[in-house]
Specification:
Distance between the termini: 40 Å
Oligomer: single chain
Strand content: under 5%
Number of domains: 1
Radius of gyration: 22 Å
Number of strands: 0
Structural class: mainly alpha
Low-confidence stretches: none
Number of helices: 7
Shape: globular
Length: 194
């Protein structure tokens, strides 16, 4: 049951990751357009320059959840790497309960008023030709922390499965994936030579 839940949460985080990767491509295209217009045609758009920052905000805010799923956040690896998988899983679960969830709930809940204020005041860019409806990009703050709460639950379940001995932590690491791929290639190679 917990393994199915873990896979469901991982798929959810993967969807966030795919969406974020699309936004990265859009941001690159936006910057490319802005640079070409500025340096080759001596013109530019304030709105397009501001859109770079808005897209960058999307990447950072939504990338938090996907990074947690991939276990890519910064920690003190000098100590952490020397621990057993069960101890690592315990530290990760404690970290979710004591740090990630309380901070995500606090920021997510308190940022709703910030978004509502921007919406009600019709906040827009102070620069002429800038973007309007700033509430849209600001709404990503509570949204991203709500998504972080969801992916944190999935991260907790994954580490609970590790603690229970269902699988090890390396099952999600690139090292494990590379080793698994190498073994598959070797087994196919041996099978093909018979």
């Amino acid at each position: 049951m917990l393994e199915k839940l873990e896979k469901g949460f991982d798929k959810f985080a993967d969807i966030i990751g795919y969406f974020t990767s699309i936004v990265i491509v859009l941001m690159i295209l936006n910057v490319f357009y802005d640079v070409v217009m500025r340096y080759f045609f001596n013109t530019g758009s304030i709105a397009m320059q501001e859109m770079e920052w808005h897209l960058f905000s999307v990447v950072i805010l939504l990338g938090i959840s996907f990074t947690l799923k991939e276990d890519g956040h910064v920690r003190v690896d000098l100590i952490y790497d020397r621990l057993s998988d069960r101890k690592k899983a315990m530290i990760n679960m404690i970290g979710v309960v004591l740090f990630i969830l309380p901070v995500a709930i606090l920021i997510g809940y308190n940022s709703i008023d910030y978004v509502m204020e921007a919406f009600n005041s019709g906040e827009q860019s102070g620069d002429p030709g800038g973007l309007t409806n700033r509430w849209i990009v600001k709404s990503l703050i509570p949204t991203s922390f709500f998504l972080l709460i969801i992916t944190s639950i999935g991260f907790f379940i994954r580490n609970l499965n590790v603690y229970r001995g269902v699988h090890n932590l390396e099952a999600h690491d690139l090292v494990y994936e590379a080793q698994h791929l190498k073994e598959e290639i070797e087994s196919h190679h041996k099978g093909g030579t018979k």
